[in-house]
Amino acid sequence: METQQRNNEEQIQQMLQQMQTELSLQQTHMQRAMDCKLKEQAHLLEQGFQEQAQRMGKEIQQLQSRNRELEDRRNQELAQMMEAQERRNNEKMEILRQQHQQQIQAINSRPRPASRSCSIQ
Known about the structure:
Layout: H1 2-46, H2 50-109
């Protein structure tokens, strides 16, 4: 039972690490895109292109919003995965507990050999 639980915990940790890596890569990508847009916006402002700079500002806000939505969705998925894994672990532990209980009952219900008393003479 402990081995199974340890394996389940290791699987959860691996999933968490994988999701964290993916999230980190996504954030890096989004940050690069945002940096690029900010540089472009600054360049446009320097050249006096107000309209384009405002458009870039809106694009930046959209990127930030999309990034927050992705993070929220990823966090929700992670929470759901962890809850599902916890439920499966609890179900497995309950099944193992019941099996163990049945085994103990089977052992206890077996006929016992008659005891022989020893007499010391």
